[in-house]
TrEMBL record:
<protein>
    <recommendedName>
        <fullName>Transmembrane protein 236</fullName>
    </recommendedName>
</protein>
<keyword id="KW-0472">Membrane</keyword>
<feature type="transmembrane region" description="Helical">
    <location>
        <begin position="274"/>
        <end position="296"/>
    </location>
</feature>
<feature type="transmembrane region" description="Helical">
    <location>
        <begin position="316"/>
        <end position="348"/>
    </location>
</feature>
<keyword id="KW-0812">Transmembrane</keyword>
<feature type="compositionally biased region" description="Low complexity">
    <location>
        <begin position="150"/>
        <end position="168"/>
    </location>
</feature>
<feature type="transmembrane region" description="Helical">
    <location>
        <begin position="99"/>
        <end position="118"/>
    </location>
</feature>
<feature type="compositionally biased region" description="Polar residues">
    <location>
        <begin position="195"/>
        <end position="217"/>
    </location>
</feature>
<keyword id="KW-1133">Transmembrane helix</keyword>
<feature type="transmembrane region" description="Helical">
    <location>
        <begin position="68"/>
        <end position="87"/>
    </location>
</feature>
<dbReference type="InterPro" id="IPR020394">
    <property type="entry name" value="Uncharacterised_FAM23-like_TM"/>
</dbReference>
<feature type="region of interest" description="Disordered">
    <location>
        <begin position="150"/>
        <end position="217"/>
    </location>
</feature>
<feature type="transmembrane region" description="Helical">
    <location>
        <begin position="25"/>
        <end position="47"/>
    </location>
</feature>
Length: 363
């Protein structure tokens, strides 16, 4: 708003007759201070208090971020509005006073990134190791990272004619004068490809045996190899510090990568030919719409369709238009990124359900 006030003051001083530029400047600055104070006292603090008190309406489901929504609407939206107004005032007065320094846009987007980082990391502590992270938070945790295969195990198929329950608990029992194979009662998976009736082929099997409720017969047996994995300790050699990682530190990287496309979209408006044209409107409008993704939690199922609808598809259309009119004011890499994301989303979510794509795998 201070930047917009400086532009208005410059226009007032260049007017004929000259206006009161100083009064206009301080009026806009005072209005901005009054707006920020009222929003902080009437909206921001009550929301923070309700989140701190864990009101169910705000933090019950953990699918959205109420504080981020308030920030995007009450702070980011006015900022983008004044960026557009600054360009429009200069266009209408046939002047190019402001050369569009990178500072205002960088501050707006950096504030969004900080809000995203705070919302992701506020569920965990900032001291000590990350062993006690909340599994319901936005930070993903890895439980089993080092695995290695062990010796395969053998299982026995079931007989389609037997009706006697199989022995359980590792005990061997007599069945029609013959001894059945040894069973283990712990269920751990499903073994495909067994012969027999349909019910037995779809029944659950254990890693080292079949379901204890199934019947066995030594006449019909088959061997299946099930690779089992066990956890191994991480590398503890002299260069183990190179493998150091923490989910809390990765949040910063993920947040910046999450916003890189929006940053580049807004940066394209910094070109003089684009900034002093009507294309600044769709650039800032769609950039603000992409900022609404901040409201959704990172692991929410809504994030993927919102990313396509609010960012990749609109950005693709705007970037293709900008390149066609102004040349390569935006990198071609981001055009390909938006195109591939849109095509992948449509293909894997819709086209693969068609009969022509629902065929057997070739390999």
């Amino acid at each position: 708003m201070q930047r917009f006030a400086a532009i208005v003051a410059q226009v007032k001083s260049a007017a004929r007759p000259p206006g009161d530029a100083l009064t206009a400047y301080w009026l806009i600055v005072a209005s901005s201070i009054a707006y920020l104070t009222s929003v902080a006292l009437l909206v921001w603090l009550p929301l923070k208090y309700m989140v701190f008190m864990k009101k169910k309406a705000l933090v019950g489901r953990k699918k959205w971020r109420p504080i981020a929504l308030a920030y995007v609407i009450l702070s980011t939206l006015p900022c983008f509005g004044f960026l557009i107004a600054s360009s429009e005032v200069q266009i209408n007065n046939s002047m190019r006073y402001d050369t569009f320094t990178e500072l205002p846009v960088s501050l707006v987007l950096f504030s969004l990134i900080c809000i995203d980082i705070v919302e992701r990391i506020r569920h965990c502590r900032l001291t000590g190791q990350a062993n006690g992270l909340d599994h319901d938070s936005d930070i993903p945790t890895t439980v089993l990272t080092h695995v290695e295969p062990v010796t395969p195990v053998h299982t026995a198929a079931t007989s389609p004619t037997s009706t006697t329950p199989a022995p359980a608990g590792g005990q061997e029992r007599e069945q029609n004068g013959a001894r059945g194979p040894r069973q283990v009662t712990e269920s751990n998976g499903v073994v495909p490809g067994l012969s027999g009736n349909q019910e037995q082929r779809q029944g659950p099997f254990t890693v080292t045996g079949i379901n204890p409720r199934s019947s066995t017969s030594p006449a019909a047996t088959a061997t299946f190899h099930l690779p089992t994995y066990i956890a191994t300790p991480p590398y503890s050699g002299p260069l183990r510090f190179l493998l150091a990682s923490d989910a809390r530190a990765e949040v910063f990287v993920d947040s910046f990568l999450f916003w890189m496309d929006t940053v580049e979209m807004v940066r394209s408006a910094g070109h003089t030919s684009v900034y002093y044209s009507g294309w600044v409107f769709p650039i800032y409008i769609f950039s603000f719409l992409s900022a609404l993704r901040l409201v959704v939690a990172p692991h929410s199922s809504l994030l993927s369709p919102l990313g396509v609808a609010l960012q990749d598809l609109p950005f693709l259309l705007v970037r293709v238009s900008l390149i066609a009119i102004f040349g390569f004011v935006t990198p071609l890499l981001y055009v390909m990124k938006n195109l591939l994301v849109c095509l992948a989303y449509i293909y894997f979510n819709f086209m693969t359900k068609l009969r022509i794509f629902n065929t057997e795998r070739l390999f």
